[in-house]
Amino acid sequence: MSQSHKSGYQKNIQHTIFTGILGNLFLVVVKGVTGFVGNSFALIADAIESLTDVFSSILLLVGVRYAQKPADKNHPYGHGKAEALIALIIGFVMLIAALYIAWQSFVNMQKPHSAPSWFTLPVLAVIIITKELLHRKFKNKSDATHSTALRAEAWHHRADVITSVAAFVGIFIAVIMGDAYAAADDMAAIIASGIILINAYNVVRPALREIMDEHRYPNLSEKVRNIAHNTPGVMATDKCHIRKHGAYYVVDLHVVVNGDFTVRQGHDISHAVQHNLHTQLPHIGHVVIHIEPFDENYNK
Fold first, then answer.
1. Which of 29, 24, 70 is nearest to 245 (CA)?
2. Which of 57, 111, 125, 226 is most buried as measured by Cβ atoms within 10 A of its Cβ?
3. Rounded CA gap, 138 and 61, in Å?
């Protein structure tokens, strides 16, 4: 992948993260103030969840910048694994936030308190729309850049949408039914914490797969093989191992050529395959081509 192409992705990712930080800072203030004034712990819990978004986004921004450092002597494949590590940290932050919200909600349920104020509902409606827009923005960028960290952050925004919806339902019940149902606000917060736990799993699992170099890219593998097959001089392909490294993929491919070719001819074919892969699949990073001689064990 060219340096200019990488630079474009870096700016794209960092701009998206910075937008998320500003959006979450605004929501923390709105949720916190509205929840405090409107007597809604579900909304305060939602503010806490958004505050974890701010910290995780700042961490993500630092991590993504580090992950995009060029390869060096000690890191010949680059620093892309930092993205998966950051995604893991984001997942654990979500876990801690979920456990705190559940515990505090349970404590609140033991104490009699009045129902939340009605004006918390329209505020929550605006918050839900805002967070859903942020989720879609991050998801689209993660799909475009293949960034594990951005995908984790997209899930984090979706978790915030769900907690806000749960808070809306709980507050609505408490407002309509009166103080006798004030605990519905706290129940909504507990339900939201469970949903956050599920989303934390959805963040942590792909990051662990990436760190462990789990092969889960059959579609990309097929594309790599097809491109190699269409390269002049390639008679077949054998092993094709793909692992994710940040926003890019590392490919180890065995290609089969005429056994009578010289070393120079095999070298030129391998470079042609590398060039075609980088040209046609912009998310391919480091490529290792192993040349094997054709014999009766291979099919053209």
1. 70
2. 57
3. 13
- In the numeric block, which tokens belong to residue 293? 């001689």
Model's pTM, two decimal places? 0.62
Q: Alpha-carbon distance 299 to 229, whole Å?
A: 12
CA quadruple 155, 16, 132, 118: dihedral, nearest 10 = 110
Q: Higher confidence at residue 10 or residue 145?
A: 145
Query: What's the CA gap between 98 and 55, in Å, rounded?
Result: 15
DSSP characters over 243-266: EEETTEEEEEEEEEE-TT--HHHH
Q: What's the rounded Cα separation, in Å, for the pair 85 and 123?
A: 35
| Summary mean pLDDT of the chain | 79
Residue 182: φ, ψ to 5°: -60, -25
Interatomic CA distance for residues 115 and 112, integer angstroms: 10
